[in-house]
Amino acid sequence: MGDLVQKFGIQVSLLIAQVINFGLVLFVLWKFAYTPLLKVMRERREKIAQSLANAKAVEEKLAEAERLKEQKLIEARKEAQGIMENVEKETEHYRQERLKEVDAELQAIRAHARVEIATEKAQALTEAKTEIVNLVISATQKVVPQGTTKDLDKKLVAEAVEESKHA
């Protein structure tokens, strides 16, 4: 080995110094670079794992929120349908009530019209009878001389009225 060391020009003291320097550099790098770097990488890996877990939890919460949203929409649709059915029932009930009111009003109008017609008919008959009586009196006075008595006039009028009732 001595020959080999001399052939290559290796100095043992220098080689030992370089090995010690290499060991020191290796120790310093290990202590102050590699270990902190491993620690930072481990922390980074944990943060990434935590972020992935959080992302998965957020996705699950989002899916749950979506399911809740769909459920609420279905409930809202059912509630809206129920409200619409109630509105339709109330509308139909109101329409029926209004029809009854209109029928009652029409019946009242018809009854009132019948009463008015009967009243007008009676009034027209009374007026016609009065006119007939006046005509009979007038005709009687022309036919019978002026000397008739009031009793005779009344009797003739009463007979004319009776005849008009039967006619």
Descriptors:
167 residues; mainly alpha; 3 helices; rod-shaped
Write up what this structure looks like:
The protein is mainly α and 167 residues long. The protein has one domain (2-166). The protein is built from 3 helices and no strands. The chain has helices at 2-8, 12-143, 150-166. Helix 2 (12-143) crosses helix 3. The longest helix has 132 residues, at 12-143.
Secondary structure topology:
Elements lengths: L1 H7 L3 H132 L6 H17 L1
Q: How much is the radius of gyration in Å?
A: 64 Å
Shape: rod-shaped
Strand content: under 5%
What structural class do the secondary elements suggest? Answer: mainly alpha
Structure, briefly:
This protein has helices at 2-8, 12-143, 150-166. With 167 residues, the chain is an all-alpha fold.
